[in-house]
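#onboarding

Welcome to the new folks! Below is a worked example of what a typical request in this channel looks like: someone posts a single protein sequence, and someone else replies with the predicted structure as tokens. Don't worry about understanding the tokens yet, we'll cover that in week two.

Example request:
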Amino acid sequence: MPSTSSGSSRRSPLDGYTQDGEERPLGSYSLLSSIFSVSFVGALIAARRAGYALPQDYRAKDIVLTGLATHKLSRLIARDKVTGFARAPFTRFQRTTGHAEVDEQPRGSGLQLAIGELLVCPYCLAQWIAGAFTVGHVAAPRLTRLLTAMWSAHAIADAAQLAYSAAEKRS
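Example response:
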């Protein structure tokens, strides 16, 4: 291995990122980011080659529905009790947190840990979901509008359920 001028060996430019020894699977994060980027760009290129054109403009309705649907679907994947089976190979159950959601911790190391961190983070998943909806708006706009309307309605229903529960507690 090449040595630095101070005599210490350096294995990777990512070495030394953390100071407390906590594992940050930066190489695996890089792999996941690359998979997202290649998949997103590849899907847009494939849609273009299949004859689908990028929309000239976007309606505010589509942006709002896509935003609400992205929020809802990312929470369903990251926090819902029933979707725990998909996260289980990468996470460890911690506790039920209410409103049909759970708290889980990523487990393992390397790619398993990076995937676990992605799967328990609705904010992290949102980019992947918004990317899929964006490609959907190009290649299958009617189906994508149907799906974003469905998950937006689900998000609105959740808000209504929470408001109802809060009103019951005040009475």
